């Protein structure tokens, strides 16, 4: 991996341009953090009326990570660890950060924001910090906000994080939802560049009339004995899985096509699609709709389950560190989540 010239060098290059063209935004570093505890499908057989075969056939998930109370496995703790890894790869220090945006629906507390807690842990005193609540699309919403800040010239370097502790909002007696979710965090560092590369476009949508397909409701079930170390919130997730499945496939496919059309690209010109990791059947249906082979759709939900806002940046970091992503190729990020919200971002890969 080549050395990053750093945000200050890129900005000086932009300032020397007499036309002062708008900067472009590149992902200069990626990072992720997941809890140590692994909850397998076989473990879930001891909690609810389900089987490994039933879960795997309907979701593609084999195991998920579950955060324990204390230590660094809070939402802010996981977000901070992911951020540090992304910053190390980007070759920046906390003082370089102008903006911190965290996508989450499971913050450690109602306020202050997870982003402010991350800022404190990093000692990033120059940064503005705030959270975004957009369901599983939180990371892409944050990416769009940070990209616009950089392209407008109001920001040089930004940290965007998706971090969730979904285990805290599960009804562990509902086998249709508790088998799906996991915990974790992923992060990217965005920097300005004078070259036409990086984030080519981001497209966001929402439709509140479908809010009742996926939402939180008061009350929670007792925490299972084998998970006594997890945090439990006074509300839990509710989902209309059948209706949500159909809407997810429709929205993911349409927003992906919108991103490609906007950039005058065909699906054949996309090297890799990194979707929100919700359900393998949704991803298969989306790929068929877009005529993209699954070999070009990155999946890791078999290992982590659905980590909501964290799923895309965790997968992005994993693909990046494995060398799956190649410089100057097109990468398509697509998401869908509660709200309903959905989005896509097309990137010409920089690292």
Structural overview:
With 351 residues, the chain is of the alpha/beta class. The chain has one domain: Thiolase/Chalcone synthase (Peroxisomal Thiolase, Chain A, domain 1, 3-Layer(aba) Sandwich). 32% of the residues lie in helices and 25% in strands. It has eleven helices and 13 strands. The strands form four sheets. It has a five-stranded mixed β-sheet with strand order 1-7-6-4-5, with helices on both faces. Helix 5 (114-122) links the parallel strand 4 (99-103) and strand 5 (128-132). Helix 4 packs across helix 5 and helix 8 packs parallel to helix 9. The longest helix has 22 residues, at 241-262. The protein starts with 6 loop residues before the first helix and ends with a strand. The relative contact order is 0.19.
Q: Tell me the strand percentage band.
A: 25-35%
Counted up, domains total 1
Structural class: alpha/beta
The CATH class is identified as Alpha Beta
The strand count comes to 13
CATH H-level homologous superfamily name: Thiolase/Chalcone synthase
Question: Main β-sheet, in a few words?
Answer: 5 strands, mixed
Give the mean pLDDT: 93
Short structural summary:
This protein is α/β, with parallel strands linked by helices and 351 residues long. The chain is 32% helix and 25% strand.
Describe the secondary structure blueprint for this structure.
Layout: H1 7-16, E1 24-33, E2 37-40, H2 41-44, H3 52-59, E3 63-66, H4 75-90, E4 99-103, H5 114-122, E5 128-132, H6 138-151, E6 157-165, H7 175-178, E7 183-193, E8 198-206, E9 214-218, E10 235-239, H8 241-262, E11 270-275, H9 280-290, H10 301-304, H11 311-321, E12 330-337, E13 341-348
Parallel strand pairs: 4-5, 4-6, 11-12
Antiparallel strand pairs: 1-7, 2-3, 6-7, 8-13, 9-10, 12-13
